[in-house]
């Protein structure tokens, strides 16, 4: 916790010191997606040394729900933790922040099935035009990632960060297209989706007998305030992590952390801190 406070204090110090300068954290771009049938925005943060050493390549962090607030917070943390001031605890990295579509609710791209969201026979929420996770995966695989790799000096290390419904999508990618990313930070995912969909998919597809690989860091929040729903979500998340830990692959690494004092809405910052220290360690 002390190191996390130092990281944010460092970010504040830098910002205050150069308040009179026009600091550009990241550049915003658009990519015409044939797969999704729309223009998708994304922003690219480049680490401080990117223009200094033209031979160096960098890991890439793909941030789901990549709105400006999330991008500024994550970029500040990544930059601070990779400096000498904080003992270079992690590698410098490129960040590609992908905000949600302006044409549809975020659940459209993050959910793998088009169903009403129910729990124990009760309707939690009704959505329309969802279940687009397969196409969203294809957008990353065939359009965005190749474009980033072509235009920036990227290494083979690619990290996907998703929380809540974004964590559902990240888990889905891990189970269905495990070669797309090398690392996953899955933050308090929506394991409740479609009656424990992720665990059912794992069992129905007999993934215990199929190749899986990746370096995965799961985080869980204390959602006791949500009662039975919160308890079930945590239980099913632990169940998925346990199955992945038991997988015989020697290319699949699973770590997890429970934050008792954090809720679903507050767990992201600490998840970024501990997760990236694990996934991007020097």
Write up this protein:
The protein has helices spanning 2-17, 68-81, 107-110, 133-151, 165-176, 193-204, 228-245, 268-279; strands at 27-33, 38-45, 58-64, 94-98, 117-119, 122-125, 154-163, 183-187, 214-221, 252-259. By secondary structure, the protein is of the alpha/beta class. It has one domain (2-279): Rossmann fold (3-Layer(aba) Sandwich), CATH 3.40.50.1820. The strands form 2 sheets. The chain has an 8-stranded mixed beta sheet with strand order 1-2-4-3-7-8-9-10, with helices on both faces. Helix 5 (165-176) packs parallel to helix 6 (193-204) and helix 6 (193-204) runs parallel beside helix 7 (228-245). The model is unreliable at 15-19 (pLDDT under 50).
What are the main properties of this structure?
Esterase-like; 282 residues; Rossmann fold; single chain; globular; 10 strands; signal; Alpha/beta hydrolase-fold protein; two-stranded antiparallel ribbon; 8 helices; alpha/beta; eight-stranded mixed beta sheet
Strand-helix topology:
Layout: H1 2-17, E1 27-33, E2 38-45, E3 58-64, H2 68-81, E4 94-98, H3 107-110, E5 117-119, E6 122-125, H4 133-151, E7 154-163, H5 165-176, E8 183-187, H6 193-204, E9 214-221, H7 228-245, E10 252-259, H8 268-279
Parallel strand pairs: 3-4, 3-7, 7-8, 8-9, 9-10
Antiparallel strand pairs: 1-2, 2-4, 5-6
Helix pairs in contact: 1-2, 2-8, 5-6, 6-7
């Amino acid at each position: 916790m002390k190191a996390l406070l130092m990281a944010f204090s460092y970010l504040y110090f830098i910002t205050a010191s150069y308040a009179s300068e026009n600091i550009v954290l990241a550049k915003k771009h658009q990519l015409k997606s044939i797969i999704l049938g729309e223009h998708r925005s994304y922003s690219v943060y480049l680490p401080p040394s990117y223009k200094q050493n033209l031979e160096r390549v960098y890991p890439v962090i793909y941030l789901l729900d990549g709105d400006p607030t999330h991008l500024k917070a994550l970029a500040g943390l990544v930059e601070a933790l990779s400096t000498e001031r904080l003992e270079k605890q992690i590698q410098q990295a490129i960040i590609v922040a992908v905000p949600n579509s302006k044409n549809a609710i975020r659940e459209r791209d993050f959910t793998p099935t088009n169903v009403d969201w129910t729990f124990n026979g009760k309707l939690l929420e009704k959505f329309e035009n969802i279940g687009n996770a397969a196409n969203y995966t294809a957008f990353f695989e065939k359009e965005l990632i190749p474009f980033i790799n072509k235009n920036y000096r990227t290494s083979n290390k690619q990290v996907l960060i998703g929380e809540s419904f974004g964590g559902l999508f990240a888990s889905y990618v891990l189970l269905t297209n495990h070669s797309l990313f090398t690392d996953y930070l899955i933050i308090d995912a929506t394991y409740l989706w479609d009656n424990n969909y992720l665990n059912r998919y794992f069992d129905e597809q007999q993934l215990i007998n199929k190749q899986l690989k990746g370096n995965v860091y799961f985080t869980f929040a204390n959602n006791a305030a949500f009662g039975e729903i919160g308890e079930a979500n945590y239980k099913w998340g632990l169940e998925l992590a346990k199955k992945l830990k038991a997988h015989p692959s020697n290319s699949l690494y699973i770590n997890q952390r429970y934050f008792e004092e954090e809720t679903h809405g507050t767990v992201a910052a600490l998840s970024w801190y501990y997760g990236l220290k694990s996934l991007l360690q020097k």
